[in-house]
């Protein structure tokens, strides 16, 4: 291959548009946000750059820490659920007959054809106390109650006197369901990709040599697809951490995450500097997670199962 | 008062989108050709044929975009006018726009129909002498409730803010300023007294009550009420009126401690590409017949006295539109409190939202 210096024009043809794009839509906005984050609001429309760190110091206020912590653990739990649900699904798709496979993949991708907002409104309809899910549970309860009455146990209220709908909206459970629902495809696809690449003969060898199904999964399958699992974890966890729409709608103001506070700084509070500092802090956290992941990945590949 | 979508058949998901901070209305930048007025309004907050009739009469086209709340509106204008000629902020935000020097003065000579406006609206505190604003609609905040779910109709903000009686069946607005202000009313304080003690007391009250509150609704309290998810909702009167028309079991009351009386105004932002067109459109909207058509469609209270004379008693004597009595005498108008107070309010609100 030619060295780029030998063909500067071709190099420029590729480099300039992409570098320009990055500059205009990434570097410049980020620089503005950084300058805002070390500025002070002095009036409704004016911001003065004073190189203050006050906005970053405010991140240590207890309520902000509480919300950061809440975002971390909600995203953490949701990521674990995504992996636990996503892995078996990916395994099913990877081992499905070649004819069925594209259809299964299509089913995973299909929700993306609908706008996130519409899907979230659909979840509101399903998860409400008078929603579809509670409707189904009530129907099951009624059948159970009838059956109990039929066998003469109706008087004891074994399953409660009345049906009590489960509250999801405005609770952690509702937000976690929403986060998992939205991000699950992002967990399935990388795991599926790593399972596809896997040489099946390792599994056969393991089983032939006397390891059980569980042992084969734990010692062979999981370690060999760990890269896919890590990717899945990262690309579900990071967007969940900055999730705005899901807690805003499904949390009903009771389960705010950090993005909801950031949004208010740019609207009601009119505190662009503080909002910028929080946004950048979220970005730093993301970088740290990515750094840890790439560090772990490089160590893993050196140690490697080859 | 985010979604002014009164008639059910006019409802769109847009109000909800705006409620979470997304709005797909494109600013009119670059489209401000001769003979176009760029009008930026709330959802379903104009008569069905008002704008078409304006175009028929004057030949001036109207580019009509929607915003979802005042905060979004201000955020769009704080760094310059994105290309609009006419906007509709609420009174305390009109003040905010004036303080930030973002409004053009209204030329009263170009709006002869100002004579139709009730003289009571001529000299409001938020814009003395009406230099920058023309009144469009006004209303109140109160409690929408499900009649069959309460033993006696609610009469006090205490039913929302301190009572255990309706635990798990309460929706408050999601807007911090208003929620704190109604707490101040309950405490017997002025809703414009943002002293640290008042704010701390209101914050403690909300944190204690949070477990009993189902939702801080981004202005969809009336939908929660209609769906049966809550039985009491703090809401803008027009929003509750909207669901009262769909469901006879819903009522509206202004609590005895008094409430906020708000007013939405027509304003021309600085840098408007077509201020003459904007003046012409304001004049058209203030016409008696046009005003009556608008009010009849959106069911908010109109300050247009000439329009009111054209309307039937179902509107003009509706206590949910024109409330009266002691509660109204104790009511106040919200005054813009300044940038420092905004930051204070948000910090307290974040503590409420982070609690529990």
Automatic annotation (TrEMBL), chain A:
CDD domains: TM_PBP2. One of its GO terms (cellular component) is plasma membrane. One of its GO terms (biological process) is transmembrane transport. Coiled coil: none annotated. It is found in: Cell membrane. The keyword Transport applies. Its main location: membrane. Residues 68-293 form the ABC transmembrane type-1 domain. It is a multi-pass membrane protein. It holds the Pfam family BPD_transp_1. The keyword Cell membrane applies. SUPFAM superfamilies: MetI-like. PROSITE patterns: ABC_TM1. The chain crosses the membrane at residues 12-36, 72-96, 103-124, 172-193, 220-241, 274-296. Keywords: Cell membrane, Membrane, Transmembrane, Transmembrane helix, Transport. InterPro entries: MetI-like, MetI-like_sf. Belongs to the binding-protein-dependent transport system permease family. CysTW subfamily. This is ABC transporter permease. It comes from Harenicola maris.
From TrEMBL, chain B:
One of its GO terms (molecular function) is polyamine binding. One of its GO terms (cellular component) is periplasmic space. The keyword Transport applies. InterPro entries: SBP, Sperm_putr-bd, TAT_signal. The keyword Signal applies. It comes from the Bacteria. Keywords: Periplasm, Signal, Transport. Signal peptide: none annotated. GO terms for biological process: polyamine transport. It is found in: Periplasm. Required for the activity of the bacterial periplasmic transport system of putrescine. PANTHER family: SPERMIDINE/PUTRESCINE-BINDING PERIPLASMIC PROTEIN, SPERMIDINE_PUTRESCINE-BINDING PERIPLASMIC PROTEIN. Belongs to the bacterial solute-binding protein PotD/PotF family. This is Putrescine-binding periplasmic protein. It comes from Harenicola maris.
């Amino acid at each position: 291959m030619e060295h780029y210096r030998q063909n500067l024009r071709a190099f420029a043809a590729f480099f300039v548009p992409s570098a320009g794009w990055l500059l205009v839509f990434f570097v410049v906005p980020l620089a503005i946000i950084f300058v805002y984050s070390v500025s002070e609001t002095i009036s409704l429309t004016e911001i003065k750059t004073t190189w203050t760190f006050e906005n970053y110091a405010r991140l240590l206020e207890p309520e902000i820490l509480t919300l950061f912590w809440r975002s971390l653990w909600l995203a953490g739990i949701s990521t674990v659920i995504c992996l636990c649900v996503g892995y078996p699904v990916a395994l099913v798709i990877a081992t499905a007959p070649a004819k069925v496979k594209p259809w299964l993949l299509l089913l995973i991708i299909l929700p993306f054809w609908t706008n996130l907002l519409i899907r979230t409104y659909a979840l509101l309809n399903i998860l409400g106390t008078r929603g579809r899910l509670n409707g189904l549970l009530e129907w099951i309860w009624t059948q159970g109650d009838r059956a109990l009455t039929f066998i003469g146990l109706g008087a004891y209220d074994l399953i409660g006197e009345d049906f009590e709908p489960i509250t999801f909206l405005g609770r952690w459970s509702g937000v976690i369901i929403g986060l998992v629902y939205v991000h699950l495809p992002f967990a399935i696809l990388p795991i599926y990709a790593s399972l596809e690449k896997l040489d099946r003969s390792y599994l056969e060898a393991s089983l032939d040599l006397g390891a059980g199904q569980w042992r084969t999964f734990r010692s062979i399958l999981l370690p060999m697809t760990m890269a896919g699992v890590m990717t899945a974890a990262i690309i579900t966890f990071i967007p969940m951490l900055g999730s705005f729409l899901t807690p805003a709608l499904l949390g009903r103001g009771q389960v705010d995450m950090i993005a909801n506070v950031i949004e208010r700084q740019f609207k009601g509070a009119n505190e662009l500097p503080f909002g910028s500092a929080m946004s950048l802090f979220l970005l730093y956290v993301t970088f740290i997670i990515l750094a840890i992941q790439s560090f772990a990945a490089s160590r893993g590949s050196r140690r490697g199962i080859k | 008062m985010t979604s002014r979508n009164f008639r059910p058949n006019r409802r769109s998901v847009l109000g909800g989108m705006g409620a979470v901070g997304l709005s797909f209305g494109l600013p009119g930048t670059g489209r401000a050709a001769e003979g176009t007025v760029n009008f930026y309004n709330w959802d379903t907050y104009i008569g069905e044929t008002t704008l078409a009739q304006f175009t028929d009469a004057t030949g001036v086209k109207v580019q009509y975009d929607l915003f979802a709340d005042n905060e979004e509106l201000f955020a769009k204008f704080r760094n310059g006018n994105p290309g609009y000629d006419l906007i509709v902020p609420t009174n305390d935000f009109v003040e905010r726009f004036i303080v930030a020097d973002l409004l053009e003065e209204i030329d009263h000579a170009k709006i002869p129909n100002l004579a139709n406006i009730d003289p009571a609206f001529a000299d409001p505190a938020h814009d003395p002498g009406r230099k920058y604003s023309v009144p469009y609609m006004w209303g109140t905040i109160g409690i929408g409730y499900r009649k069959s779910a309460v033993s006696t109709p609610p009469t006090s903000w205490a039913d929302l803010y301190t009572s255990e009686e309706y635990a798990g069946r309460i929706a408050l607005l999601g807007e911090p300023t208003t929620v704190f202000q109604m707490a101040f009313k309950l405490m017997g304080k002025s809703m414009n007294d943002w002293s640290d003690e008042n704010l701390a007391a209101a914050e403690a009250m909300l944190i204690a009550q949070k477990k009993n509150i189902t939702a801080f609704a981004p202005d969809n309290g009336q939908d929660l009420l209609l769906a049966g998810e809550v039985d009491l909702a703090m809401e803008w009167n027009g929003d509750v009126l909207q669901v009262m028309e769909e469901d006879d079991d819903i009522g509206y009351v202004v609590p005895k401690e008094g409430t906020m009386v708000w007013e939405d105004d027509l304003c021309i932002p600085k840098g408007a590409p077509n201020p003459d067109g904007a003046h012409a459109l304001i004049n058209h909207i203030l016409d008696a017949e046009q005003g009556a058509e608008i009010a009849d469609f959106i069911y908010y209270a109109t300050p247009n006295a000439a329009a009111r004379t054209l309307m039937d008693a179902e509107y003009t004597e509706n206590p949910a539109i024109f409330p009266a009595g002691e509660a109204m005498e104790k009511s106040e108008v919200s005054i813009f409190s300044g940038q420092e107070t905004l930051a204070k309010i948000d910090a307290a609100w974040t503590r409420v939202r982070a609690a529990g």
